[in-house]
Amino acid sequence: MSRTQIIAFANNKGGSGKTTSCSNIGCALSMMGKKVLIIDGDMQLNLTLSFFNEEKSLEYASNGKNIYTAIREERDLSDFVVPTDYEGLDIVPSTSLMSAIEFDLFPKWQREFILRKCLEPIKARGYYDYILIDSPPTLGGWVMNIMCASDFVVIPVEASPWGLFGLANMFEFINKVREISPRLSVMGIMVTKADERKTYFKETLKTLRESEDVRVFEGYIKVDSAIEWSQDNSKPVVAFKKYSRSALEYKKLAKEIVEYANR
After folding, report:
1. How many CA atoms lie within 13 Å of 210's alpha carbon, on the beta-carbon side?
2. Average pLDDT over every residue of 55-61
3. What is the pLDDT of residues 219-237, one digit of tens each?
4. CA distances from 51 to 18, 19, 108, 118, 183 (A)
């Protein structure tokens, strides 16, 4: 029986590339022969929309086959898993009702560990090699839930003048999570939306790599219109345009994640 590794993609800053990275790395891992479950933890449904058209995504959002129902009712997450079009890759969809998740979590006993409890039956079976969780751009009780359920956190950071804004708050939050969930560790910062022609990209990368106790992934994702086209077609770029620059970059990052997780 394999050990299932749970990886959260989180950043309190919006537009950092969390969802795009989660969907593409999940798909890339499945292409490597790994069994992968991805969980859409954001009320915007963008991860769900990365694999299904709007009609299908809204169907899952309205029929209870989603993460909100599972967490609110504290049920085995296995009942909410649906297959994608890609072999070895499943998803737990989201819903706009996730906007109320903080309110629903508040009165629950050991509320920081509800997601961990819902994931326990899946993890115990050991079917999946990896479970990837897409987080909303906040630092509230739900993101704490996600991190308490995870072994690792990957922090996508946009290579822009504002990309590093709030990163200190992110690490402060992670340290607080580790007080109640010591198993969580930072896998690394993943630089996204990089334009190698721009000075601020070089400055961002230099600042991050010179920081103490901050691991930065060797690979990074450059700006690529193929990503937007793939999103418009509800497909990860690694499947939509397999040999595009960004697809190859995400595949490289997926290998880097496997190497780090299996150290």
Report:
1. 6
2. 96
3. 999 999 999 999 999 999 9
4. 15, 12, 32, 23, 31
Report CA-CA distances (Å) from 1 to 32, 125, 126. Answer: 18, 8, 6
In 10 A of CB 224, how many CB atoms? 18
* The pLDDT value given to residue 2: 59
Contact indicator for 41, 185 with CB cutoff of 8 Å: no
d(CA 82, CA 93): 8
- Tokens at 65, concatenated: 């086959």
Q: Which residues contact 33 (CB under 8 A, 6 or more apart)?
A: 88
Domains of the chain and CATH, by start: 5-261 (3.40.50.300)
**pLDDT, average across residues 62-84:** 96
- Per DSSP, the three-state class of 84 is coil
Q: Give yes or no for residue 1 having a pLDDT over 70.
A: no
